[in-house]
Amino acid sequence: MSEMVLSEREGALRILTLNRAERHNAMDDAMSALFQRLLGEALDEDTTNAVLIRAAGKSFCSGRDTSVLGHRARDESDFHFVRRAQEGRLRMQESTKPIVAALKGGVIGGGCELALAADIRVADTTLKMALPEILYGVLPDTGGTQMMTALVGPSRTKYLVLTGRPIDAATALEWGAVDFVVSPEELDARALDIARDIAAKPPINLAMGKEMINLMHGPAIRTGTRAELYAQSYLFQTEDYREARTALRERRQPRYRGK
Hints:
Blueprint: E1 5-10, E2 13-18, H1 29-44, E3 50-55, H2 78-94, E4 99-103, E5 106-108, H3 110-116, E6 120-124, E7 128-130, H4 144-152, H5 154-163, E8 167-168, H6 169-175, E9 180-182, H7 187-199, H8 203-214, H9 218-235, H10 239-250
Parallel strand pairs: 2-3, 3-4, 4-6, 5-7, 6-9
Antiparallel strand pairs: 1-2, 7-8
């Protein structure tokens, strides 16, 4: 399990690498718990000024592993499961340490929300970014509706959330969902260069700068993310959610009833 997420230090920069390439870095319970632990340690370190999140393989993160959809490792309620996941995203946003994400390939569902919770996003041209939860009978639940709206506006977010369709790198850049797009060969170097540059700055200035900028959207994102919690807790109990999962398993079109 320790190899599913790698953690290393370069001066004042902490680098976390998602390392489950054979599953496009989809997160099962073990990988998610490990990532949250290593991220928490990075954000608590006095000697770390900034964090870079990157990934091995062809994709940044394809979200929750489909093999464990609906599974609750702690035998907890849907409410507590979602709320615990939300705290990880909110901690990223509200931490005083700037976070850079290097994105490529699939940046899907929870992987997209992980990317959105970073402060700066560098993508390569292979990027496919999506919030496809509606195709599974649910909706984004760790801030996707809120963070994406803050970046690209309500209409474009509605397109992403209500269709579940992906956007490519050029569209993500045009809309403002990512900040830079480079070739695949340049991605790691460009993201590392930006993260190093930030990590070299005075930590108190970094903390205050991020805090001031976050005041524009931060409180609204926290409130809206909690609204996602209530919606998702309800949707997990609907007949349409069960039908969506059954249809996916049976490889057919779902027959929704609005119940």
